[in-house]
C-alpha cells in the first residue's frame, strides 16, 4: 500500500512512523530539511516538496495546520487518480469538509486527538495515536468505502475511532479543546514577572498553563476557523466570570460556595476517578 | 516534643503522619470520627474536640480552612503557655497574620504548597510535603526564634522553605494559584452535557480542569479572603480575553498569531523544560 503524507510535522510524521513496515510512505513537505531527515530516518521511502510526488498513491493524508489544508488539497488533487481516498488531520472540520468535498467526492475528514505541546517532526513518535481517540467526520454523501478505509488506517495505528457530524465535532471541540487552550493562553497575560518565583510554580499552575506553550500558528488557525463556536463560548465564559465576580465582591459566602460546589460536582462526574 | 495540630484534614493529618516517631501529636478536630480514626491509625497520641487539650504543648499548628483560622486561634490561645510558637497553614496570609499577631506575638504564618484536589483525613499522606515549597510569612515584629522553629519543622518534613512578606505572598498566590482555580472552576460552567462524550475528554481538557474538582469551602474562603488581588486579576483577565475576542472577530490573523506567540513564549520561559 502506497500512502502520501502531506506535512511531516508531529501528526504526519507520527503517522508515517506508526505505519512503518506496513505501508510505503511518500512524504511531501515544503521544508526539504525535514524531508531529508525523514528519508535518513527511514520514516518515508521517497519525498520532496512537489505535490506531483503523490501520483500513483493508494490514499493520501493532509497533515497540515487548519489554515493550509484546503490550499494543499487544491495543489494535490490534480495528481491523484479519481477515487483515491483523501483525508486531513485538522482540529476543525466543518469548513474544511465542506470545501474539499465539493472538489473531491472521496474525501472524509479525520481528527486524531493526539496533539501535545511540542510540534514538528522532531516531536513525532510511532505510538502517538495508541489508545487515543480519532474522530472521522463524514458528510451526507461520503462513500462508505472511503470512511471504512480511514477507519482501518487509524485503527491500525491504535486509535479508537468515533464517527461524528463535522458541525457537531466543531461544537464539541470548542468546549473541550479550543476554549481550554484560549483560556490557558490568556492566563499568560497575568504571568509577567513570575520568573522570579520559578521555584514556587507548583502543580496546579503548571497543569493549568501547560497547553499555553502550544504552537501559535496552529492555534491561530483553529480559533479563526471555529470562531463561531469559540466566540459564543467566550461570551458565556465571561458571563460566568461576571457571576463569580459579583458573589466575591458582594461577599456572598453561601452563594459562592454553592456555585463552586456545582462546578466541582460537574468535574467529579466527568471523571469519576476524580483525577 | 509535643505538638498540637488543630484540624486533621489533608494538611494537618499529613503533618502528623510526617512527624511520626519524632513528636508526640495531640490532634484537635470537631469531627470526633476523624479523631478516632487518627488515634486508631497511631497518627496522634491523644485527641478530641476541645482546644484545652493543647495545654502543655511545645508548639501549635492550626490546619483549618482560611475562614476558620482566626476563630480557632481565639479558642486555642487561652490554653497555651505564653511564648508557645503558633502557626497556621492557610493559603492566604495577610489578614490572618495581621489578626493573630495582634493576639499572640509568637505567631508566624505558614503556607505549605502541597494541596491536591482530594481533601480530608483520608487523603493525607506522610510524604505530602516532601520536595514541595513552604512559604513562611513573618510580620515586622515576629521573633526570629519563632520563624526558626517553624522553618525547622517544615524542613524536617521535606519542605523547601521560602520567607516572604504576607502581602507579597497573597499577591503572588492570586496569580499562580487562586486565579487558575477560579478560571478552572468557571470553565465547568461550559461543560453541561459533556458526559455524553466522556471518551473524548483527553489530556488537555483533563489537565486544564483538574483543579476544578477542589474543595468548595476551602476555595470560597480563599477567594473571599484574597478578594482584593483576585478581583483585580479577574478584571485584567477579562480585558485580556476581550483583546483576543477582538482579534478573532476582526479575523486579524497576524495580530492573533503575535499575541499567541507572546503567551507561548512566556509559558516556555517559565518552565524551560517546556513540560
Description of the structure:
The structure is a homodimer of 275-residue chains. The first copy, chain A, has 275 residues and is α/β, with parallel strands linked by helices. Chain A folds into two domains: 2-164, Rossmann fold, CATH 3.40.50.720; 169-270, 6-phosphogluconate dehydrogenase C-terminal fold. Chain A is built from ten helices and eight strands. A five-stranded parallel β-sheet of chain A has the order 3-2-1-4-5, sandwiched between helices. In chain A, helix 3 (69-76) runs parallel beside helix 4 and helix 6 (166-187) packs across helix 9 (227-249). The interface between A and B is large, with 88 and 88 residues.
